[in-house]
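From the methods appendix. Each design record in this collection lists the tokenized structure first, followed by the designed amino acid sequence. Records were kept in a plain field format so they could be parsed without special tools. The example shown here is representative of the layout used throughout.

RECORD:
FOLD TOKENS (850 positions):
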């Protein structure tokens, strides 16, 4: 065994170029997996360790109305009398400084907030002093950035509703602000005791009431939440409006912020690993081809086949282990750079570090995976015979039917490993298998295209001059190596060019939906009596006020005579958001331009009446119906202001939410909501940028309770988040491209060495060094150009399919990146060929005779 290890190490150390290319190639492929695994691991560890601090409690009772006295008593009894309690009231409202009026999130707290976590202050304030001052006087706590948006300094006053409050304290970080990827408005804290002076709590206002509980260390918060939920349901019924939030809900919500995208990034990293595995197999094939005679000599000298197999398996394992170690170091270096791509989306104090589980998996994949990737080539050792000494080794050979079957079987272990790795990154075995299958289909498509093109090379060689004849002939004769280059380049280019297409479509659709004009402002909490004054306010101003959309808060009681709570349990696909029963209902005489009926009949224009005895018409948003598990013809009983009414779904609508118009999941037939107390939503268009501040200030002065959302600012925030997420995906795409380039370098280098005798023969026959260089560069330039063109064309179809399935058909043609890749790839491949053949050309032609 020591002799085999010594022989293996000597072989590795003597073949430095092969060793270096193998290590760099596999290390790049493993680095993407390492970075994504460590990023996800760091995020999960942070969430697991800080959930209570993020929630600021063990559990929270949340409602759109104040808790009743009975509900408070039940919660105290169920959650231990000694439990610490804190209260909070939050809502959005316009606030006005000395010169600026803007929307803000008002958060009113008591003297016990927060139960977990803490505020970090810019000064030397004690939190107890801050809370005490807030309770005693009309004082505000906000971030310094929020103060800058309102042009405020310490001591200035801010008008909230009917009262003025003093800016007293600045904080650096609040307990709940670590995962706020998209804030509609800056946050301002004040005291519950001082909130009443504002006069903003009135009917229709969208207010959230929270009661926080901190239990004893020995208490089981999850079990307590279940018991409390049952107790509250027994009092309020199944349609009670009090929701219980635990750390499990926070984990689910925060995990969605980057979780889905992290899975997509993980699958993108698998492309780089696949390319690395393919390149490793080719490198080992060429290395083994040169060592077949040595293996035959070992068999002649008495070594058995098992020892020969162990020798090469040991080499692969050692190389794979060293490549894994290199990838760990590379991942450690890339991880902070990757984390910066998510700045503003992940917590600012999240410490990214190498994940121990990912490190172990990387070492295992590197050590064992290198053997699995090279297994189709490794199996050739079983066919080596001492008679091999008497034969010259030839180039590419076409395997027969039996050889193809053996090749397919030998690929299965590597594919199984890719499925398991993809499943671990995506969290689903089905998604992992689907991704791997898609990758295999893609490679088959590229291989078939490469085969067709390379077979045509033989025909083209008959009709060309000498130089082109040699180029076409070499491409045809070396179909295996040239096909590998084609597939590697095409796969990497497809991923790189796929990203801009979807990104461009998303950015364009967010900023300017096709065929629609985005509003400038969105208005909420418009009271019934403010409809006419608001219309008069904008009349003659040149600004366009949309139709006012009524909004009534109600509950879903049952679906098809099944209580809604049981219906949710029966529908396995129902999202967790539907654990609540309260939703916003609306009605309109005609659909907005952002809505389209995709199935069913229009809602009847005639008003519904109670005396008809018939269910009223319901128009349901298409994706909402899928998540809820309902379809056309289903009947629903809704509770509106304590009155239960039955309706029937008559159509499904597609809604373009990025229009920022007043849209709803459910529209009810006219007449159902006429007598219900309601508020209204509206949008404002055609406001010049220089007029925005003036319009908002006038609105805040005239209608203090109406909240104004700056849609253009929201679009900018959405665009910024989209750009950050796509930059991280582009990071993984270019890592795959780097792996593909290394694969081309590896194959070009091996091809130059394999053709050494052929190149020297051309020189002996009178071919100049320049012509030989030109022939090789033309070969690889043609390969790179053909592969890039094929991949770019296919990427448009793939990106359109991705946009159709995942992004509601949002897609826009982007030609610049494709043109850049189409121009850069042939030049890059030609330069790689130029460098690869240089060392061979420096040798003397006399080497042909040695």
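DESIGN:
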């Amino acid at each position: 065994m020591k002799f085999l290890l010594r022989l293996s190490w000597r072989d590795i150390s003597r073949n430095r170029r092969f060793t270096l290319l193998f290590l760099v190639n596999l290390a790049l492929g493993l680095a993407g997996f390492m970075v994504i695994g460590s990023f996800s691991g760091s995020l999960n560890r942070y969430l697991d360790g800080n959930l209570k601090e993020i929630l600021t409690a063990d559990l929270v009772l949340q409602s759109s109305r104040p808790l009743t006295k009975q509900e408070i008593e039940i919660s105290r009894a169920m959650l231990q009398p000694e439990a610490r309690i804190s209260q909070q009231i939050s809502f959005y409202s316009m606030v006005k400084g000395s010169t600026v009026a803007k929307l803000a999130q008002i958060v009113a707290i008591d003297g016990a907030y927060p139960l977990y976590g803490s505020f970090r202050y810019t000064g030397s304030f004690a939190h107890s002093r801050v809370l005490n001052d807030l309770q005693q006087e009309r004082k505000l706590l906000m971030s310094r950035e929020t103060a800058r948006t309102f042009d405020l300094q310490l001591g200035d006053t801010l008008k909230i509703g009917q009262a003025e409050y003093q800016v007293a304290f600045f904080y650096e970080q609040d307990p709940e602000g670590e995962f706020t990827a998209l804030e509609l408005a800056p946050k301002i804290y004040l005291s519950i005791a001082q909130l009443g002076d504002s006069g903003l709590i009135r009917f229709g206002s969208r207010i959230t009431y929270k009661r926080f509980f901190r239990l004893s260390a020995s208490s089981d918060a999850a079990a307590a939440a279940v018991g409390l939920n049952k107790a509250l349901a027994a009092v309020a019924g199944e349609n009670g409006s009090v929701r219980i939030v635990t750390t499990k809900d926070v984990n689910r919500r925060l995990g969605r912020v980057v979780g889905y995208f992290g899975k997509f990034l993980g699958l993108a990293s698998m492309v780089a690993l696949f390319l690395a595995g393919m390149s490793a197999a080719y490198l080992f094939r060429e290395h083994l081809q040169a060592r077949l005679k040595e293996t035959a000599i070992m068999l002649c000298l008495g070594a058995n086949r098992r020892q020969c197999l162990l020798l090469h398996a040991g080499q692969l394992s050692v190389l794979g282990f060293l490549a894994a170690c290199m990838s760990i170091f590379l991942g450690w270096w890339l991880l902070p750079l990757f984390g910066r791509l998510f700045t503003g989306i992940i917590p600012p104090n999240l410490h990214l570090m190498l994940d121990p589980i990912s490190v172990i998996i990387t070492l295992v994949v590197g050590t064992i995976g290198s053997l699995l990737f090279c297994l189709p080539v490794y199996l050739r050792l079983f066919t080596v015979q001492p008679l091999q000494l008497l034969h010259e080794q030839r180039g590419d050979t076409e395997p027969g039917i039996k050889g193809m079957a053996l090749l397919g079987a030998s690929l299965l272990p590597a594919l199984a490993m890719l499925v398991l790795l993809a499943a671990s990154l995506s969290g689903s075995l089905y998604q992992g298998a689907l991704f791997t299958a898609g990758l295999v289909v893609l490679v088959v498509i590229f291989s078939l295209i490469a085969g067709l093109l390379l077979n045509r090379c033989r025909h083209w060689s008959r009709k060309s001059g000498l130089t082109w004849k040699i180029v076409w002939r070499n491409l045809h004769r070396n179909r295996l190596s040239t096909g590998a280059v084609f597939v590697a380049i095409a796969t990497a280019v497809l991923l790189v060019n796929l990203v801009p297409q979807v990104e461009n479509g998303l950015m364009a659709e967010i900023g300017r939906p096709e065929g629609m004009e985005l509003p400038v402002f969105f208005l909420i909490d418009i009271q019934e009596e403010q409809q006419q004054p608001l219309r008069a306010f904008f009349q003659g101003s040149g600004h366009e006020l949309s139709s006012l959309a009524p909004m009534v808060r109600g509950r879903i009681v049952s679906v098809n005579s099944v209580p809604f709570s049981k219906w949710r349990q029966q529908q396995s696909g129902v999202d967790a958001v539907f654990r609540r029963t309260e939703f916003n209902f609306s009605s309109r005489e005609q659909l907005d331009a952002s809505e389209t009926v995709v199935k069913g009949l229009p809602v009847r224009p005639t008003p519904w009446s109670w005396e008809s005895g018939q269910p009223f018409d319901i128009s349901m948003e298409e994706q909402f119906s899928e998540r809820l598990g309902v379809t056309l013809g289903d009947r629903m009983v809704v509770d509106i202001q304590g009155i239960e009414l039955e309706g029937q779904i008559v159509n499904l609508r597609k809604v373009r939410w990025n229009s920022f118009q007043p849209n709803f999941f459910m529209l009810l037939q006219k007449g159902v909501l006429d007598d219900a107390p309601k508020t209204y939503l509206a949008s404002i268009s055609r406001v010049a940028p220089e007029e925005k501040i003036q319009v908002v200030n006038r609105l805040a002065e005239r209608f203090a309770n109406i909240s104004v959302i700056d849609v253009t600012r929201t679009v900018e925030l959405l665009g910024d988040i989209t750009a950050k997420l796509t930059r991280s995906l582009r990071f993984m795409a270019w890592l795959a491209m780097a792996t593909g380039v290394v694969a081309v370098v590896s194959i070009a280098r091996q091809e130059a060495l394999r053709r050494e005798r052929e190149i020297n023969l051309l020189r002996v026959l009178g071919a100049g060094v320049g012509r030989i260089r030109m022939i090789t560069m033309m070969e690889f330039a043609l390969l790179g150009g053909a592969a890039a063109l094929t991949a770019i064309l296919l990427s448009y179809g793939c990106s359109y399919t991705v946009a159709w399935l995942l992004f509601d058909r949002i897609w826009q043609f982007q030609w610049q990146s494709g043109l850049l890749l189409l121009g850069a790839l042939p030049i890059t491949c030609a330069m790689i060929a130029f460098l690869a053949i240089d060392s061979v050309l420096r040798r003397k032609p006399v080497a042909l005779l040695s």
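APPENDIX NOTE: The CA atoms of residues 115 and 570 lie 37 Å apart.
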